[in-house]
Amino acid sequence: MAFRILCNALQAIVALALSPLIGGVLSRLKEIVQSKRGPSVLQPYRDLWKLFHKDEVVSDQSSWIFRATPYVVFVTPLFVVLLIPVLTSYPLFLAFMADMVGAGFILALGGFFACLGAVDPANPYGPMGASRTRMVGFLAEPVFVIVFFTVSFVAGSTIPYIVQAQWTRSAGSFLAPAHVLLIAAFLMLILAEAGRIPVDNPTGHFELAMIDESKGLEYSGRGAALMKWGGHMKLMVLMCVFLNVLVTPWGLAARQQLAAVLLAIPLVALKILALILVLVVIESSLSKLRLFRITEFLGAAFITCVAAMIARTFAA
Amino acid sequence: MSHLPSLLAALNALAGGLFLLSAFAMVATRQTRGCLALFIYQSLLLAASAFLLAGEYGSAHLAGVGVVNLISKPIVVPLILRRTLSSEIYTRREIEQALNIPTSLTIALALAVLAYFLAIPILQSVAPQFRSANVPIGFAGLLLGAYTLSVRREAVPMLIGILAMENGAFFAGIALSRELPLIVELAIASDGLILVFVAGVLVRTIQRRLGSTRVGELAALREAQAPGAGRPA
Fold this sequence. Notes:
heterodimer, A: mainly alpha, 10 helices, B: mainly alpha, 8 helices, 0% strand, globular
């Protein structure tokens, strides 16, 4: 009992502590690829530290939504962390409280509040970014649903732990055509949802071209820090689902011992590092798509996952 | 071995998945250069699948098919195209299409479903461990290649569409017959190379005459003028 509480707490702490590092490593590696030195991998931590120590300015024209949004954006990925296999391959306390669709809805709640919070203070760039995010969001939704139901089709369940256990058992169907297509579709989905390069440029400073970043423009001090941290955690949660459930369901703690769980942390970090390398290659070799080409990108993701569904149905 | 596929079969299934992915990507891509890169990639996957099937069936013929594929398509075809065509064709970014990309992809998806249905009656003659991969995906590659051929309005991507059709047919064929005679593959490979060469020369001529290779514009037939006669009134 106490051990399970400890595991759950450990999962949340790992997500809190390691998620800014992912952003730092990603941007550092990208700079190295571009023959630059780049900021230290610890830069996101310093940013968060600095922002937490600054005063917060909130417009007196804004409502409670603007003030509540950073907390919602910060907390929702933490809830999802409790539902998915981050470190252990056996289900923890809250594993059966919601399935993958539920986790998706919780993440979507954070996105929804971020959009409301962007519209609220009437900054002209906020609503523009919010509407663009919604466009990307509603195009990504069908991909999301089909990917998860196709994955669940094999396991007969939408609980991520059960799906993960199913994949570790049946390594034969792991390389099946349907699975490869699903991985491709989900990778495209991560790029879209996390605002990475073919869809959105996270390092861009030009407000008119922003999609994801412009929602946080009005925030300062603690609010900005929470929004940033929440964004880092969202990327980490998506990566964890991608790696621990779909691509490499191995390397998680299988025994109920603290040592095994602690050993899983570097293994998971290693897997995430591998995925970061893939993202660096994608981000350095592609350019940002024009806004109305995003439909094509996500359309391609949709076609890929529907093809996976067909392949799965016929193979079974 | 009945329900758990061997490593070779699993790797072959992986090649199949990537093959289908590359066929879809070929429909979606806009650049001539990207189209060619995807074709090379697809041919490599075809060769890999041939080698894996050769290992599984213990068939030297299929290994020969793999070798011929490995030499002819990823190496010789791009070389011929590069020799016969000017670099201007490669550098053009966007290919004109009769339909836009989302519509194309939806049709491509319908074709893939059709391919899976078409493959059902044939599957009985395939070894069970390769049932899910080669035949339906090869058919899908064939149909998607044919679709690329019909929807593109640029000469070089159309040519690549024809070659992708051939790739798809072979991808299905190597699973259907264990002892595919090497002579057949050699004949088809040399045929394919001659096709590439002739089409390359044709495209070059079209480009010299029109200044572009947008064969989609060559829709109306104009009567050739006799050397002495004036224009008919």
